[in-house]
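// run 5 | inverse folding | seed 20
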């Protein structure tokens, strides 16, 4: 039962509850790990592991031609760092067996008449074997081999009109001139980590009170359910904002992701995302009976939220139906805001639709979760 109090008494009670909650969180080593160490660890892990760049693929070569041209092709394949030359076994059957067994990612077989055919102007054919179990790696290896062979072909056709290009495109990549993959993945990982941590920590903090029985003790004190919820939300929001800044420092100084936008706008949209995560966590705690049930349910909720957000893969790569469903995913809008602010230096005038959607999700989810939790306290 809530009691009407003057505003200064109400504020004093909320402040006392917030201080009590902060002290309790700082004494909980599990929550401290979730708040600070796990986000940084995940940022390092995902930031390095999610890179699509492939290097040091094992390449086996059987050079039946033993000619300058075949040696130049092999040198071009090895010198770029994508392929490392490995023993092939000496025969085509042995090379094929190694590719099939996964001991080599790629194998190349040069025909004996390669140089003679090339000098006569005919197309020289080389056989390429690729391990297709990992389709992504196989596709990248195929692209590199095709590109290197095409470049080598252009170098051979010198002195004729074929080598003269009628149209010479000049390509400029905006915002990421070097096409560094971490510049795309790390901002998305920041959003991913913030969503996971805010959901897990808020649900754990509420479930902890239910398991220990201190929630019932709070209900016996002259405070309202709104004050209890504010005491949960305010300290977690402060600590999670610190987590956001730590992640931003890691992305800047470890992954060298440039920060081009407004720092305060970044903090504002991060605060909205934190409110969304805390709302989901409070809702999970309201529907769960214990911490284990809350943890399992959070992963059931967070996995589709992450997959449909565009944090780890472009939304254009998923089926159109799921692209429409992703419009109901609040994390999608935060990912768009973070990438636009960090990489493009976008202001509020450019990202206001995403900020508006994120604000609506924060208000709606916070209202629903607190009302559900408040009914349980009544």
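// decoded
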């Amino acid at each position: 039962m809530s009691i009407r109090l003057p505003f200064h008494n109400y504020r004093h009670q909320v402040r006392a509850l917030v201080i009590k909650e902060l002290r309790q969180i700082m004494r909980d080593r599990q929550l401290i790990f979730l708040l600070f160490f796990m986000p940084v660890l995940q940022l390092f892990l995902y930031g390095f592991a999610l890179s699509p760049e492939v290097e040091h693929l094992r390449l086996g070569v059987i050079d039946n031609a033993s000619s300058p041209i075949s040696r130049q092709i092999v040198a071009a394949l090895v010198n770029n760092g994508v392929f490392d030359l490995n023993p092939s076994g000496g025969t085509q059957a042995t090379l094929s067996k190694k590719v099939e067994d996964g001991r080599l990612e790629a194998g190349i077989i040069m025909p004996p008449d390669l140089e003679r055919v090339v000098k006569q102007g005919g197309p020289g054919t080389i056989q390429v074997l690729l391990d297709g179990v990992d389709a992504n790696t196989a596709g990248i290896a195929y692209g590199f081999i095709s590109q290197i062979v095409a470049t080598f072909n252009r170098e051979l056709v010198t002195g004729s009109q074929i080598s003269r290009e009628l149209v010479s495109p000049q390509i400029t990549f905006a915002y990421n001139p070097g096409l560094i993959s971490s510049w795309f993945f790390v901002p998305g990982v920041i959003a991913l980590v913030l969503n996971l941590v805010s959901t897990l920590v808020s649900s754990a903090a509420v479930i902890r009170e239910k398991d220990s029985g201190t929630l019932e003790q709070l209900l016996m004190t002259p405070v309202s359910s709104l004050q209890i919820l504010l005491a949960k939300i305010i300290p977690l929001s402060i600590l999670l904002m610190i987590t956001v800044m730590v992640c931003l420092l890691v992305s800047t100084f470890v992954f060298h992701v440039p920060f081009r936008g407004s720092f305060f706008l970044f903090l504002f949209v991060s605060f909205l995302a934190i409110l969304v995560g805390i709302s989901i966590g409070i809702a999970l705690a309201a529907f769960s009976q214990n911490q284990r049930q809350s943890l399992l349910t959070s992963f059931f909720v967070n996995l589709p939220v992450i997959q449909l957000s565009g944090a780890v893969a472009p939304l254009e790569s998923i089926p159109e139906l799921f692209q429409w469903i992703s419009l109901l995913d609040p994390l999608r809008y935060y990912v768009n805001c973070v990438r636009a602010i960090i990489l493009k230096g976008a202001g509020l005038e450019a990202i206001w639709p995403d900020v508006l959607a994120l604000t609506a999700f924060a208000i709606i989810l916070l209202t629903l979760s607190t009302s559900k939790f408040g009914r349980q306290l009544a």
